[in-house]
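Why do we care about 3D structure at all? Because function follows from shape, and shape follows, mostly, from sequence. That is the central idea of this module. The next example makes it concrete: a single protein chain, its amino acid sequence, and then its structure expressed as tokens.
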Amino acid sequence: MARQGGSEARLRCPGRPGQPAAHLRHRPHAGHPGGDLSRFKQWSEDLVGTNQERYVQCQREMSPYFSAVAAERRLEPRDDLISNLVHAKVDGEQLSEIELIGFCILLLVAGNETTTNLIASIFLCLDSLPEVREELIADRTLIPSAIEEVFRYFSPVQMMFRSVKRDTELGGMAMKAGDPVFLYIASANHDEKAFPEPERFDIRRSPNAHVGLGSGIHYCLGAQLARLESRIVLETLLERYPRFSRDRSVPLERIESNLMFGLRRLPVFLNG
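And the structure:
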């Protein structure tokens, strides 16, 4: 991902060229075959994108693919998550084929697109707000709260879908059991009733009860891993390249997704 060039390096972070690193991070433990990184990359993009044809096509490709992987793990279990899922039991019953495939897809996408886009937002934030960068350079103990504010302010996951479980009323609107609901996480994270001056990026914001990682039984299982990875990246960045800068000759362009906030590419000059 980094190419040395004289006294500075050029890093594409974490646009599409850097995405295989995220897949490599999860593949050994999840059980995804290592030779299919480019395929995983494309599937991840298509699943969260807005192109309906590509979405349907990747679903058609993923189902038989992961069904075959699951069948292989039934015969030859390994020390990975897919093997654990294949042999797991809930109330004495194993997961159905549809449930297995769903979990495999979740493992593929959830740990890739979200953390990748979060790290990109961290780079963008520190480049756009030099005063925040200086605060973090001076006081590294602020890094965890800075990451939480990135979760709130940028919301890597912008929205989620749910179904109403029983007839109810919310905000004066009647909702029937089975009605589809769109939960706009990004909007909730900028609710002025919950966050004073919500459009201000504040690394000392407290409390910071954002819902960037979900809530309740749907709270992100990988939350602590995402925090750890982001903290390590930010600590390393400030330690080795505190004066990094974004290449402004390349315009910022969002990925085509209603579900995610992310950038297609983010070239960065690494300066010590």
